[in-house]
Protein backbone atom coordinates (compact mmCIF):
# COMPACT_ATOMS: atom_id res chain seq x y z
CA UNK A 1 0.00 0.00 0.00
CA UNK A 2 2.86 2.34 0.82
CA UNK A 3 4.41 1.73 -2.58
CA UNK A 4 1.12 2.56 -4.32
CA UNK A 5 0.77 5.74 -2.27
CA UNK A 6 4.35 6.72 -3.16
CA UNK A 7 3.77 6.18 -6.88
CA UNK A 8 0.55 8.24 -6.77
CA UNK A 9 2.30 11.07 -4.91
CA UNK A 10 5.17 11.07 -7.44
CA UNK A 11 2.70 11.13 -10.35
CA UNK A 12 0.84 14.10 -8.86
CA UNK A 13 4.10 15.99 -8.35
CA UNK A 14 5.18 15.33 -11.96
CA UNK A 15 1.80 16.40 -13.38
CA UNK A 16 1.96 19.60 -11.35
CA UNK A 17 5.36 20.49 -12.87
CA UNK A 18 4.09 20.64 -16.45
CA UNK A 19 3.38 23.75 -18.50
CA UNK A 20 -0.22 24.89 -18.11
CA UNK A 21 -2.43 24.80 -21.20
CA UNK A 22 -3.89 28.03 -22.57
CA UNK A 23 -6.78 28.66 -24.90
CA UNK A 24 -5.15 31.80 -26.40
CA UNK A 25 -1.57 32.96 -26.90
CA UNK A 26 -0.21 35.15 -24.13
CA UNK A 27 1.97 38.16 -25.00
CA UNK A 28 5.55 38.25 -23.75
CA UNK A 29 6.85 41.52 -22.40
CA UNK A 30 10.02 42.69 -24.24
CA UNK A 31 12.00 42.88 -20.99
CA UNK A 32 11.19 39.20 -20.33
CA UNK A 33 13.03 38.08 -23.50
CA UNK A 34 16.62 36.99 -22.75
CA UNK A 35 19.21 39.32 -24.33
CA UNK A 36 20.82 36.50 -26.33
CA UNK A 37 17.51 36.04 -28.17
CA UNK A 38 17.06 39.71 -28.92
CA UNK A 39 18.41 41.23 -32.13
CA UNK A 40 18.77 44.91 -33.03
CA UNK A 41 16.52 44.53 -36.06
CA UNK A 42 13.84 42.62 -34.23
CA UNK A 43 12.87 38.99 -34.60
CA UNK A 44 12.28 39.26 -38.35
CA UNK A 45 15.69 40.72 -39.19
CA UNK A 46 17.61 38.45 -41.57
CA UNK A 47 21.12 37.48 -40.53
CA UNK A 48 23.83 39.26 -42.51
CA UNK A 49 25.54 37.08 -45.10
CA UNK A 50 29.11 36.17 -44.27
CA UNK A 51 31.64 37.69 -46.65
CA UNK A 52 35.21 36.72 -47.36
CA UNK A 53 38.13 38.51 -49.01
CA UNK A 54 39.64 37.04 -52.17
CA UNK A 55 42.41 38.14 -54.51
CA UNK A 56 41.72 38.88 -58.18
CA UNK A 57 44.24 39.93 -60.80
CA UNK A 58 44.03 42.73 -63.31
CA UNK A 59 46.54 44.38 -65.65
CA UNK A 60 48.82 47.40 -65.25
CA UNK A 61 51.34 48.05 -68.04
CA UNK A 62 51.28 44.43 -69.31
CA UNK A 63 51.85 43.02 -65.82
CA UNK A 64 49.39 41.31 -63.49
CA UNK A 65 48.56 42.97 -60.18
CA UNK A 66 46.43 41.57 -57.38
CA UNK A 67 43.48 43.34 -55.74
CA UNK A 68 41.29 42.34 -52.81
CA UNK A 69 37.56 41.85 -53.33
CA UNK A 70 34.79 41.03 -50.87
CA UNK A 71 32.60 38.13 -52.04
CA UNK A 72 29.86 36.08 -50.37
CA UNK A 73 31.26 33.44 -48.02
CA UNK A 74 29.15 30.80 -49.74
CA UNK A 75 30.17 30.33 -53.36
CA UNK A 76 33.65 31.86 -53.10
CA UNK A 77 34.77 30.40 -56.43
CA UNK A 78 31.78 31.92 -58.20
CA UNK A 79 32.55 35.19 -56.39
CA UNK A 80 36.09 35.21 -57.84
CA UNK A 81 34.71 34.60 -61.35
CA UNK A 82 32.16 37.40 -60.94
CA UNK A 83 34.81 39.80 -59.64
CA UNK A 84 37.04 38.99 -62.61
CA UNK A 85 34.33 39.50 -65.21
CA UNK A 86 33.16 42.71 -63.49
CA UNK A 87 36.63 44.13 -64.04
CA UNK A 88 38.50 46.83 -62.17
CA UNK A 89 36.62 49.49 -60.21
CA UNK A 90 36.32 53.05 -61.54
CA UNK A 91 39.06 54.26 -59.20
CA UNK A 92 41.35 51.40 -60.27
CA UNK A 93 40.69 52.25 -63.92
CA UNK A 94 41.54 55.89 -63.19
CA UNK A 95 44.90 54.59 -61.92
CA UNK A 96 45.64 52.70 -65.15
CA UNK A 97 44.30 49.27 -64.17
CA UNK A 98 42.59 47.30 -66.95
CA UNK A 99 41.39 43.78 -67.63
CA UNK A 100 42.75 41.52 -70.35
CA UNK A 101 39.48 39.57 -70.41
CA UNK A 102 37.57 40.21 -73.63
CA UNK A 103 34.28 42.06 -73.25
CA UNK A 104 31.38 39.61 -73.11
CA UNK A 105 33.50 36.63 -72.04
CA UNK A 106 31.68 34.26 -69.72
CA UNK A 107 33.36 31.79 -67.40
CA UNK A 108 31.34 28.97 -65.90
CA UNK A 109 32.61 26.43 -63.39
CA UNK A 110 31.89 23.04 -64.97
CA UNK A 111 33.88 20.73 -62.73
CA UNK A 112 35.73 20.78 -59.45
CA UNK A 113 37.78 17.65 -59.02
CA UNK A 114 40.07 17.63 -56.03
CA UNK A 115 42.10 20.83 -56.31
CA UNK A 116 41.46 21.27 -60.05
CA UNK A 117 38.76 23.59 -61.39
CA UNK A 118 37.45 23.27 -64.95
CA UNK A 119 36.08 26.47 -66.51
CA UNK A 120 33.89 26.64 -69.60
CA UNK A 121 34.63 29.64 -71.84
CA UNK A 122 31.87 31.24 -73.85
CA UNK A 123 31.78 34.48 -75.75
CA UNK A 124 34.16 35.93 -78.32
CA UNK A 125 37.87 35.40 -77.68
CA UNK A 126 39.28 35.74 -81.21
CA UNK A 127 41.09 38.77 -82.60
CA UNK A 128 43.20 39.45 -79.54
CA UNK A 129 46.96 39.73 -79.46
CA UNK A 130 49.05 36.92 -77.96
CA UNK A 131 50.02 39.29 -75.12
CA UNK A 132 46.37 39.98 -74.32
CA UNK A 133 45.57 36.26 -74.43
CA UNK A 134 48.43 35.32 -72.11
CA UNK A 135 47.47 38.09 -69.68
CA UNK A 136 43.80 37.01 -69.77
CA UNK A 137 44.65 33.39 -69.00
CA UNK A 138 47.14 34.45 -66.32
CA UNK A 139 44.57 36.79 -64.81
CA UNK A 140 42.09 33.92 -64.44
CA UNK A 141 44.57 31.26 -63.30
CA UNK A 142 46.27 33.46 -60.69
CA UNK A 143 42.91 34.62 -59.31
CA UNK A 144 41.34 31.16 -59.09
CA UNK A 145 44.45 29.47 -57.69
CA UNK A 146 44.71 32.18 -55.02
CA UNK A 147 41.92 30.24 -53.30
CA UNK A 148 43.35 27.79 -50.75
CA UNK A 149 41.36 24.90 -52.22
CA UNK A 150 42.47 25.32 -55.86
CA UNK A 151 45.87 24.43 -57.33
CA UNK A 152 45.05 23.94 -61.03
CA UNK A 153 42.71 25.30 -63.70
CA UNK A 154 41.63 23.80 -67.01
CA UNK A 155 39.69 25.54 -69.78
CA UNK A 156 36.89 24.11 -71.91
CA UNK A 157 34.79 25.34 -74.82
CA UNK A 158 31.71 23.43 -75.94
CA UNK A 159 32.74 20.50 -73.75
CA UNK A 160 36.24 20.11 -75.23
CA UNK A 161 39.59 21.10 -73.70
CA UNK A 162 41.01 24.41 -74.94
CA UNK A 163 44.69 25.08 -75.52
CA UNK A 164 45.92 27.93 -73.37
CA UNK A 165 48.97 30.12 -73.77
CA UNK A 166 51.57 29.82 -71.03
CA UNK A 167 53.61 32.85 -69.99
CA UNK A 168 56.48 31.62 -72.20
CA UNK A 169 54.18 31.48 -75.27
CA UNK A 170 53.78 27.70 -75.41
CA UNK A 171 50.32 26.16 -75.87
CA UNK A 172 48.99 23.45 -73.57
CA UNK A 173 45.81 21.64 -72.60
CA UNK A 174 47.43 20.47 -69.36
CA UNK A 175 46.10 21.86 -66.07
CA UNK A 176 47.50 25.34 -65.42
CA UNK A 177 49.04 26.47 -62.14
CA UNK A 178 50.04 29.79 -60.59
CA UNK A 179 53.68 28.92 -61.29
CA UNK A 180 52.90 28.98 -65.04
CA UNK A 181 52.11 32.73 -64.79
CA UNK A 182 54.36 33.98 -61.95
CA UNK A 183 56.61 35.70 -64.51
CA UNK A 184 53.67 37.98 -65.43
CA UNK A 185 53.23 39.40 -61.93
CA UNK A 186 54.17 42.99 -61.31
CA UNK A 187 57.32 43.23 -59.15
Automatic annotation (TrEMBL):
The keyword Signal applies. Residues 1-22 form the signal peptide. This is Sporulation and spore germination protein. SMART domains: Germane. Keywords: Signal. The keyword Nucleotide-binding does not apply. The lineage of its organism: Bacteria, Bacillati, Actinomycetota, Actinomycetes, Propionibacteriales. Residues 77-166 form the GerMN domain. It comes from Kribbella steppae.
Amino acid sequence: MRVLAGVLAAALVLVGCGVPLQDEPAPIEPQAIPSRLQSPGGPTAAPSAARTTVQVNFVRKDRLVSFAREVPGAGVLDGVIQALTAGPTASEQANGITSALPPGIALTVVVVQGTTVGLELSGETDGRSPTENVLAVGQIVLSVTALETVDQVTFWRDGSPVEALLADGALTTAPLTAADYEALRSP
